[in-house]
Specification:
By secondary structure, this protein is of the alpha/beta class. The protein has three domains: 3-66, Archaeosine Trna-guanine Transglycosylase, Chain: A, domain 4, CATH 2.30.130; 75-180, RNA methyltransferase domain (HRMD) like (Transcription Regulator spoIIAA); 204-395, 3-Layer(aba) Sandwich (Rossmann fold), CATH 3.40.50.150. Helix content is 28%, strand content 29%. The protein has eleven helices and 20 strands. It has helices spanning 12-15, 75-88, 90-93, 130-133, 136-147, 208-216, 232-239, 252-264, 280-290, 311-328, 346-360, and strands at residues 3-6, 20-22, 26-30, 38-42, 48-54, 60-66, 100-105, 114-119, 122-127, 151-154, 171-175, 183-186, 189-192, 222-226, 244-249, 273-277, 294-299, 329-339, 364-371, 389-395. α2 (75-88) crosses α5 (136-147), α6 (208-216) packs parallel to α7 (232-239) and α9 packs parallel to α10.
Length: 396
């Protein structure tokens, strides 16, 4: 087997079971270099450390799979990992009130580069790295064997594949196509999903628990749901007794989908809610100028930072939007604010919010720290698995 030798003093992360090896940590490669092929990893003295798959086109050249030299990475290996991931979600699988959740979360489930989400009887998969791409047919067959879905939709159409030297792809991979009107349930709430064409894999599954938390705070409140997209936070807010919800998004289609979700849950989008299409920053500035006030504001923007060089601009964006929101809150109002940018750490995000509160002249208390749901577990040896962070704050 081809062996990747690390440069001196670059072996500590591997010994600590971090699954990534960057190109700068590699001294040399001995043996044939094949995209996505398995390689052994050794330290500078030649001591065997781990085994993973190799991609010379990526900045992350090796993604590690096992630290056991005697463990073969074969079909049985992948099957064990899939079975273990499913077993870890057994409670969700048994809950009739929730029919959509993340089934396999890449590195955190020991399968780097593979995302699998369940939507009722269907699975949606993403092959994000060359290592899983070259094993696509095997993994699809194993998913059918282990989970017996009605069909599998491949949504490997995310730009991160370009960093692996892979083309984008979106297609039905196995079984029957999902119906156009497919509905899922989340904590008992029905939602329409578009698996072939929706954002991410069809729905923002990582916010499930946070939506429930926000819903429990919404009774009697006027709610602003910014970057509303599917309108799911609005559904939870009205279910929690909110007086009125304003959804704001740039997409007319997203707002229409949000209204459909409200109707599906028994709410009247004409009487209990309003949909505003426009740039969220501009809309909130107009609300500030008009003197409008809300009792609960949800900020769930898209990713602002995809690369390190994006961080300064992302920090300004997060500060600006939170500054605007804090100025729109009535005394005692609540702000549920999120960042899904993995490069923005929880500590940095809290510091950004602190700066926004100073500039807004509003004192605020953190009453809850929020994160992704337990079906998106964070491996202790892989903190990069934590990308969603949120703060629930009260203006005092």
């Amino acid at each position: 087997m081809t062996t990747v030798f690390l440069a001196p003093a670059k072996d500590r992360p591997v010994r600590q079971r971090h699954p990534w090896i960057f190109s700068g940590a590699i001294d040399r490669v001995e043996g044939p270099i094949v995209l996505g092929d398995l390689v052994d990893v050794a330290d500078a003295r030649g001591e065997w450390l781990a085994r993973g798959y190799f991609n010379p086109r990526s900045q992350i050249e090796v993604r590690l799979l096992t630290w056991e030299r005697a463990e073969p990475v074969d079909a049985a290996f992948w099957r064990r990992r899939l079975v273990a991931a499913g077993a870890a979600r057994a409670a969700l699988a048994a809950d009739p009130h929730t029919t959509a959740y993340r089934l396999v979360y890449a590195e955190s489930d020991g399968v780097p580069g593979l995302i699998v989400d369940r939507y009722g009887d269907w699975l949606v998969v993403q092959f994000l790295t060359a290592g899983v791409e070259v094993r696509r047919e095997l993994l699809l067959d194993l998913l059918v064997e282990v989970f017996a879905p009605a069909g599998i939709v491949d949504r490997s159409d995310v730009p991160v594949r370009h960093q692996e030297g892979l083309a984008l792809r979106s297609e039905l991979a196995r079984g029957a196509a999902p119906p156009p009107g497919l509905e899922i349930r989340e904590n008992g709430h029905p939602f329409p999903v578009d698996l072939p064409g929706g954002q991410k894999t069809g729905f923002y599954l990582d916010q499930r628990d946070n939506r429930a938390i926000v819903g429990r705070q919404a009774a009697g409140r006027r709610v602003l749901n910014a970057f509303s997209f599917t309108g799911a936070f609005a559904v939870y807010a009205l279910a929690g007794g909110a007086e009125h919800v304003t959804n704001v998004d740039t997409s007319y289609d997203a707002l229409a989908g949000g209204e459909e979700a409200l109707r599906l849950n028994g709410f009247d989008p004409d009487r209990q809610a309003e949909s505003i299409a426009g740039d969220v920053f501009q809309v909130l500035r107009s609300y500030r100028d008009e003197g409008r006030r809300f009792d609960l504001i949800v900020l769930d923007p898209p990713k602002f930072a995809g690369r390190k060089q994006d961080l300064p601009g992302a920090a300004r964006g997060y500060k600006d939007i939170n500054l605007l929101a804090l100025g729109l809150l009535a005394p005692g109002g609540l702000l549920a604010t999120f960042s899904c940018s993995g490069l923005v750490t929880p500590d940095l995000f809290q510091k950004i919010l602190f700066g926004a509160s100073l500039d807004a002249g509003r004192d605020a208390q953190i009453i809850a720290k929020l994160s992704q749901g337990p079906d998106h577990p964070i491996l202790l040896s892989f903190p990069q698995g934590e990308y969603l962070k949120g703060l629930l704050c009260r203006v005092v």
